[in-house]
Amino acid sequence: MYNAYTRKVLVLLAIFGGWEIAARLADSPLMLPTVGDTFQALLSTIANPNEDGIRLYVWETMKALVSGFALGSVIASILTVLAVNTKIGEDFLAMITSALAPMPAVAVFPIALLIFGISFHSILFISAFASTFPLAISMYAGFRQVSKTLKNVGRNWGMNPLELTIRILIPASLPSIITGLKNGFGNSFRALVACEMVVGAATGAGGIGFFLMQQKQNLEIPAVWAGIIAIMTIGLMFEWVFTQIENRTVKRWGMLAHSQK
Amino acid sequence: MVPSTLDAGSPALVLEGVSIRYGAAAPVAVENVSFSCTRGERLSIVGHSGCGKSTVLKAIGGFHDGLKIDGSLTLHGHPITRPDPIRYVVWQDAEGQMLPWLTVAENVAYPLIYIYKRTKKEVMPEVQEALKKVKLSAFADRYPHELSGGQRQRVSIARALLMPCEVLLMDEPFSALDALTRSDLQDEFLDLFAQSEACLVWITHDLKEAAKIGHRVLVLDSHPGRVKRIVDTTSRQTHEVEKELDALIKEEKDHV
Asked: Which ipTM did the prediction report?
């Protein structure tokens, strides 16, 4: 009936419409500010170049997120390569993922604080920890699903296990790897914002999580909602990046079906 | 018609008393198989499903993991112990042997670039020529998922034809294709392979295909796979060889 973008805009308008009606009915700016007040707060905090503007907080979160996510991705790749090529590596990954993957990353935050103290490193640790296991699980599943024929083709061409991993297994597992990256990123982002709320500015300038807590304490409720919108926007932005990567790689190569809708 | 002459010469590929088990305690899958293949010779292997045709091919290919092999497998007197592009394999699974992230031309070029360290620029004229031979010039920039099963198998053939291999191993390459496409591809393959000096081992369950492709056809018995007979097809009509193979296969079926 409508194209995908029109449908998304309609859904967004419906959400904002419902929000505006609820805010007006509740008539309590401290509980639920109106859409107008929220966006006004968002624009003014974005425009604010000073230390209390949202830009600095977002930058701090991005720094921790990207570095932690990169570190988690490297660890996940090493664990997966070892698991695919060695029996002990396989057992290690199976055991460690079944024990640690279901655990919320914030649960190990006290341990991170004990090891690294209240510092950027503890935030980085949580970000890396949260992204490692979803990625390792997806990557390993992807490697295991690569057809035996394709592996044999690589071996027939004289590839050693490492070359086979780099030249065949990784590109052939790209759909699973991208899914793992998405899940790992989501996990990492959620854990990071939660931890920022706990340690706040003690780790540096404080991230977006700290911004939310600070605005709440100052009773700047529209700014709290503005922070939530900023978090959603960052999430959507990364989702868009992953979708673009998918469209230009695995979907183009027929490794992942295009949406029929 | 099958070719009238064989390339005379000393055997390149030699199997002597080869017995294969899937693990030390497993029953024998292939027993005491001996045959040889000279340069430029085409050898078909036929037999019932599960008779060990593909197991023999895996052993020649050097894919020995999980196999317990007794006897001797040699190429030019050197024991076969591991996979090597000198013994190039075309697998049954046409889709599975394509690299989906590369175009058709890149798929054909890849082993030449990877194994022989040649540049893309250097190999592309040969690749285009090979694609022309297998009638896929127009598909050079497509991705494997955009091709039909027959076209994908043509890509595998183009890739195999460019490989300077000593032994070309074909594992039921056309089995998933319809009869018409299969027959076309058999003819095309024979035309293209005519200039090759490689020794060809062609696994199939299609007796007509075995008779048409092979200078000789090795018939394997089942459980365990033993050499029942090696049928010479030179200077004989395909249908005549097919009839003989059919009788040999039925003989075994009746015996079982």
From this structure: 0.88
